[in-house]
Amino acid sequence: MKKLVCFFALCLSITVFAQDKAAIKSQVAHAIEELRDFIAIPNDALNPDDIDRNISWLKRKFGDRGFNTAELATENLPLFFAATPMEDNKPTILIYMHFDGQSVEPSKWNQPDPYKTVLKKPTANGFETVSFNELNDDINYDYRLFGRSTSDDKGPIVMFLNAIDLLKKDGKEIPFNVKVILDGEEEKSSKPLPKAVQQYRELLEADFLLIADGPIHASGRPTVVYGCRGITTMTLTTYGPIKPQHSGHYGNYAPNPGFQLAQLLSGMKDKEGRVTIPGYYDGITVNEDIIEVLRSVPDSDEAIADKLQFKTAEKVGGFYQESLQYPSLNVRGLGSGWIGPKSRTIVPESATAELDLRLVPESDGTRLKNLVKSYISEQGYHVLDHVPSKSERMANDKIVTVTEGSVTDAFRTDLNSPFGVSLVQTLESTFDAEVVRFRIMGGTVPIAPFINELQIPAFLVPMVNPDNNQHSPNENLKIGQLAYGIQALYAILSTNPQ
Amino acid sequence: MKKLVCFFALCLSITVFAQDKAAIKSQVAHAIEELRDFIAIPNDALNPDDIDRNISWLKRKFGDRGFNTAELATENLPLFFAATPMEDNKPTILIYMHFDGQSVEPSKWNQPDPYKTVLKKPTANGFETVSFNELNDDINYDYRLFGRSTSDDKGPIVMFLNAIDLLKKDGKEIPFNVKVILDGEEEKSSKPLPKAVQQYRELLEADFLLIADGPIHASGRPTVVYGCRGITTMTLTTYGPIKPQHSGHYGNYAPNPGFQLAQLLSGMKDKEGRVTIPGYYDGITVNEDIIEVLRSVPDSDEAIADKLQFKTAEKVGGFYQESLQYPSLNVRGLGSGWIGPKSRTIVPESATAELDLRLVPESDGTRLKNLVKSYISEQGYHVLDHVPSKSERMANDKIVTVTEGSVTDAFRTDLNSPFGVSLVQTLESTFDAEVVRFRIMGGTVPIAPFINELQIPAFLVPMVNPDNNQHSPNENLKIGQLAYGIQALYAILSTNPQ
Q: Is A236 in the B-facing interface, judged by CB distances under 8 Å?
């Protein structure tokens, strides 16, 4: 990796230039038209033709800007790759975004077609559809574009393309080799990605990875995320009678799988939500320096409690951001027999708990799952990876079937990584606002294989408004964020890292 | 209640007479035709017209046998009542049966119409439909009649009618006043019954209650049941965030309702299934005499374990029949978020456990529910009978909503009740087999209000084969049981209780 120093003076001059408001607005106007055109191509990865049509569009748009482009075959749908001609003396930045979107249910949207972008202005009661002609006189940054993937994640791709345009108009040379990798299956968990990254390792080689996905902090301040928790899952099933039995005939005689499951789960955590399985939190240190960064995130624990309507949070961390530094053990689902109007007077045949374990870099997913399994064994349960046979049932008093999900690793880039320091300074000077720095985000992105394979510092630089209805009907992008993203990428791509 | 002594010699003479096999077979042949005719009238209590048509049939059939009949209006569908002309010097026997049946799904039956009785003979692979002409030469007691309510519970009504016929043919005087009450909503929980029994208290007054419903013991031996457990239900709901939250963002921060529920439930029982809530088993004594009766039931705990495929039963009682002498606490359902393919990475908004509590006479349902609620309070939970408001959520760390079902009481007639002693002797001498005596049955019958209102000894005398597919498709009655029921009722109704 090339050494990186930010020339602060240069950053400032860029900032002044990029903040020529008229030039930005004109570029935003262009970006709106380009985004409408892009959104109009449906992008559900369940339809491979959708992905092909989007790739054709991307080839043309990146080609027009002087990028070399390629379609990278994978085990499933292709990835799109673009790069500026490589120059040996420049560091290389790899940008990851995705062009597929969540599946749509048009009937749930307040517009006829989620792929036909609608312009709306904010009102006292929400949003009101207006004609695009309203933008002719002035681009109102509070107006929003509604459509699937306006925010997640076609918007950032269009911001990138228009930042490139603006850099060209300003005659700026980009002090990086720029590689762009665009995923077509992110919303379907990017399953082919890990193998593809291994296969195309050399092509993807870079000094830093920048991920433009997800929303900025709710405060509206520029945001940089240094890591994401990973995830793995476990399914635990306990057993009662082989078929559901009449609870009159067999209640307090046939073993009850619900009580067994309850007893197993209840021993995994204390009453304040801390995992009590030995070793679960091993290796994690949250020192004063880290606490300081975590405290700098302008979250309000009181506001979260008020919004989610609970009195006291679990006590894994002392406050919200600290809690994210630890792996979680979450009961995401419970099921046995029936509840509600369908409930029947039976001793159910089984009871199931679905667990998810969010991981941090110190907590290897396989290690944590083994700890949970050891704990279960120590409670006197026979742990199986399959539904027990009759002979297994007759030979063991207590049986748990444990099914394990795959592991998506966590990643976390050092807060003092030089490119990260430069990134933060660039954003702070561009927007004259303190950057919100997340040491690690609670959620998981399928990007971890990149980072683990390429072994480079990685940063999420979110571009879109937090209230964008990502993954839901009425997804939208605030036009002001389109301007934000163009400016942010302009500044990042024109800041000489040497 | 009149004093009751069984003249054993008389019983024997009756037996000899009633066992004139040709006379019985001839009566069975008549009963088969009468049952086919009765089954042909659909009897789903969801259709009041069905119930009316059945009552018309019953009025005619009981009227033909010299009974006075009446339709008793209730809050919902009418009950059918019939009685012989009352004579002051005779004790009165009240017989409860029901003529409604479970709803049918014809497509799940192996015959075109569940209300059109089909005759089947047993084969190596199950049953094979045969023509009713096959009965012309001989009534084969191993053949079966398939149709809705053949066993549950029109069969016993037809057995009763034909026992009356046979008594008349034999010129026997019935040494009882006989009252018959036939329920038309038993399969829909007999909701109007408690009030109706109060309303018609005088009409229903009797010295003993005999309930002809349910199957005999699997051994095929004559069976008398002295009691049934009652039932009540509770629904417990714990709360997480007000709406499901992303488990990455809020896992190990927002309270997890599944863990809370698990911790609550796990403290209610020990690991061997005994309820540990203080007072739950108060008042129950199972002494050596009782144990002897319980042991006399020809159950095999090993066979139950083998059939239900578990190694060790819960330890509430030392063996199956003993376990039924205690109230149960059964988790009949658990639900939170989703399990299986629909599961999502969320912190669910709530978790629910559906409990049923089977009751014994010592265990008042309201008292047990209060014990459970006290236990929950002692664990630091705020117990509500409604979904918490925001202010309740913000003021209390741990909240449980408890919803309570109504209570159906248990009943249990003394094993030494004189009529019961006579009943057992009559059956034993009629069938030359030891009667299986159940001190209490695990399940619940909606008959408890009768017994509690009328305060008379009550006995279930089941008539039908245990493998009758009651409540399911392909319900059937073994023709031999039709003969059994006619003989049993003949013997009971001709045994002078004075």
A: no
- Give the closest of B320, B352, B443 to A339, CB-based: B352
Helix (H) or strand (E) holding A400: strand A399-404
Place of tokens 């159950």: B299
Place of tokens 């072994």: A455
DSSP B442: S
Which residues of chain B lie closer than 8 angstroms to A337, CB-CB?
A: 331-334, 354
Mutation test of the interface with chain A: which of B102, B252, B306, choosing the one with the most A Cβ atoms within 10 A? B252
Residues of chain B with C-beta less than 8 angstroms from the C-beta of A308: 241-243, 245, 250, 254
- Using alpha carbons, select from A251, A249, A331 the residue that is nearest to residue B332: A251
Q: Domains of chain B (ranges plus CATH)?
A: 8-227+411-494 (3.40.630.10), 230-284+326-404 (3.30.70.360)
Rounded to whole angstroms, the Cα distance separating A376 from B116 reads 54
* B250 vs A: CB within 8 A: yes
Report the relative pairing of strands A230-239 and B399-404 from DSSP bridges: unpaired
Residues in chain A: 498
**Which 3 state secondary structure label does DSSP give B408?**
strand
Residue length, chain B?
498
Which tokens is A469 given? 């209805």
- CA gap B330, B400 in Å, rounded: 18
Q: What is the DSSP string of B134-201?
A: GGTT---TT-EEESTTTTTTHHHHHHHHHHHHHHHHTTPPPSSEEEEEEES-GGGTTTTHHHHHHHTH
Cβ-nearest to B346 among A252, A332, A441: A332
Task: Provide the b/e sequence for A241-277 (b: ≥16 CB within 10 Å).
Answer: bbebbbbbbbbbbbbbbbbbbbbbbbbbbeeebbbeb
- C-alpha angle with apex B8: B5 to B12, nearest 5 degrees? 140
- Tell me which DSSP letter residue B341 carries: G
Q: To 5 degrees, how large is the angle CA A87–CA A90–CA A96? A: 95
pLDDT tens series, chain A, 498 aa: 333 333 333 333 334 344 588 999 999 999 999 999 999 999 999 999 999 999 999 999 999 999 999 999 999 999 999 999 999 999 999 999 999 999 999 999 999 999 999 999 999 999 999 999 999 999 999 999 999 999 999 999 999 999 999 999 999 999 999 999 999 999 888 889 989 999 999 999 999 999 999 999 999 999 999 999 999 999 999 999 999 999 999 999 999 999 999 999 999 999 999 999 999 999 999 999 999 999 999 999 999 999 999 999 999 999 999 999 999 999 999 999 999 998 889 999 999 999 999 999 999 999 999 999 999 999 999 999 999 999 999 999 999 999 999 999 999 999 999 999 999 999 999 999 999 999 999 988 888 878 888 899 999 999 999 999 988 899 999 999 999 999 999 999 999 864
> Chain-centre distance of CA B388, in angstroms?
37
Which residues on adjacent β-strands are paired with residue B364? none
Would you state the structure tokens that stand for residue B356, as one six-digit string? Answer: 């049923």
Other beta carbons within 10 angstroms of residue A151's beta carbon come to 32
Position B59, amino acid: K
Q: How far apart are the first and last CA of chain B?
A: 11
Distance CA A125, CA B28 (A): 77
Q: Which helix (H) or strand (E) holds A54?
A: helix A48-64
Contact B92, B497 (CB under 8 A): no
ipTM value: 0.87
Which one-letter amino acid corresponds to residue B300? S
B402 backbone φψ class: left, alpha, beta (φ>0; ψ -120 to 50): beta
Q: Do B313 and A254 touch (CB under 8 A)?
A: yes
Q: Which residues contact B50 (CB under 8 A, 6 or more apart)?
A: B41, B42, B43, B44, B100
For residues A158 and A27, give the distance between their C-alpha atoms in angstroms, rounded to a whole number: 11
For residues B255 and B261, give the distance between their C-alpha atoms in angstroms, rounded to a whole number. Answer: 11
